Amino acid sequence: MATSCTQRPTLQSNLTEANRFMEKLMTKIFCFYDEQSLIDVSFKFSNSTAVIPAHRLILAAASPHFENLFNGEQGNNPVIEINDIDSDIFERLIAFCYTGQTLITVNNVGAMIKAAIVLQLDDAIISCVDYLMKHIGEYTLQGAYTLERETQCELLKQKIIEYEIQNFMEISQSNEFLNFDVEKMQRLLESDNLNIAREEDAYDAIKRWVNYDVPARQEQLPILIPCLRLTQIDADFLWTHIHPLPGCELLTLRTITWIRESAARTRINMRFTEARATCEKTFLAVCSLGA
């Protein structure tokens, strides 16, 4: 049982002194690890002769996986066998438990993310995903897509979406773009931060995506077209390009009415009426011409 002298510091504690103490403590703990002193558990591997020593308390504090492992049937075993993680990757992640840092490279980041997910090392996952996205040119976007599908990592999925939004014009011309599902297309097109110069760019991307498989994707147009900021598009363009699309006839008429008749706007429910953050507003210019 913990005594009163081990209570958490109050808010009035001197944070500088507390930080200094924690820094000294963690430095000493890492020295124990580096010198293999006071070791109370070791890990061996089915496909390697490597043996990695560690301290149960540190690993349990860093990861729910290790906490559950040490509280389970193998909790008192001095040596625990690891079967599903490479010894080098495992050692790097054990080091992360002590320091919050480890060596990540383009060649190992995929394996690091997979292992960190297994070991429930959330901070390591964040570090690895951040590294991957900073080196996406070397790792390749296709590699990131494959890794996300294999791991179902939510953080990686979100970072990829952010990257796609920021680099939409480039992404929309790639072969990977043609294999996006409709849910992903919708999520991208709904974003106010979609990085396009004009709304017609988003329409062109939809057209390219649909044309890749017209029979299967044409029916998705009534889902995707409303994601456009239609009121920011010229009425003639709407009539020429949007109105002929299956399922978009009524939406086009409502939008053109909304643009040309300011008095009708309170009666017409438009999903989006403002320009995206990345596009110039065109609505006010249209209104001034009709005033």
TrEMBL record:
Keyword Repeat among record annotations: yes
Matches recorded under PROSITE patterns: BTB
Keywords assigned by UniProt, alphabetized: Actin-binding, Kelch repeat, Repeat
Domain of life from the UniProt record: Eukaryota
All residue ranges annotated as the BTB domain in the record: 39-106
UniProt cross-references to Pfam families, sorted A to Z: BACK, BTB
Keyword Repeat: yes
The protein, known as: Kelch-like protein 17
Gene: Klhl17_14
